[in-house]
Design a protein that fits this description.
This protein is of the alpha/beta class. It has 6 helices and 5 strands.
Length: 162
């Protein structure tokens, strides 16, 4: 099977592959400190369960990363993925000015990917993203191996920032 014909395994980053708990404190302030939240992302420890699942998926699938992080975080994100020795793969990020909820932005990208390739699985921690993807017919694995704060969940849905 050639690389271009392999199915896709799509992985979220924050609280799926990376442990973002140490930086969630920046979202508990008013106003939320988004610059500090994203600036601290390179220090995220990896989440063993998500990393193992990603590496295992790469044996049969092409790995794609789908994150709600804004495009301005691309280099930090690529550096983090490389530092964790995660499989190479395209990284899809939201536009810097896109504030739609992740369940909308991620589903839009999933549909675009599915138009060209089979998507074997989406692995994500955001329950609303998972529900939307399942309703659209995608196979989903819920990443329940990291705790996220209520503030992060609210920010994901209400402010469309991650």
């Amino acid at each position: 099977m050639t690389r271009s014909s392999r199915p896709l395994a799509v992985f979220d980053l924050d609280n799926t592959l990376s442990d973002a708990r140490h930086r969630q404190r920046f979202l508990e302030r008013r106003p939320r400190d988004w610059d500090a939240f994203f600036a601290a992302a390179p220090q995220d420890p990896p989440l063993a369960e998500g990393v193992a699942m990603c590496r295992e998926a790469a044996e049969d699938c092409e790995v794609v990363y789908l994150t709600g992080r804004p495009e301005r975080c691309r280099q930090d994100t690529l550096d983090w993925l490389a530092a964790q020795d995660l499989p190479e793969g395209r990284v899809h990020m939201r536009r810097n000015d896109d504030r739609r909820p992740a369940r909308h932005t991620k589903l839009e990208i999933l549909r675009r990917l599915a138009a060209r390739r089979d998507i074997r699985v989406l692995v994500d921690d955001d329950e609303l993203v998972c529900e939307a993807a399942e309703r659209a017919g995608f196979r989903v694995v819920r990443a329940r191996w990291a705790d996220s704060s209520p503030e992060l969940k609210k920010a994901q849905e209400d402010e469309g920032r991650t």
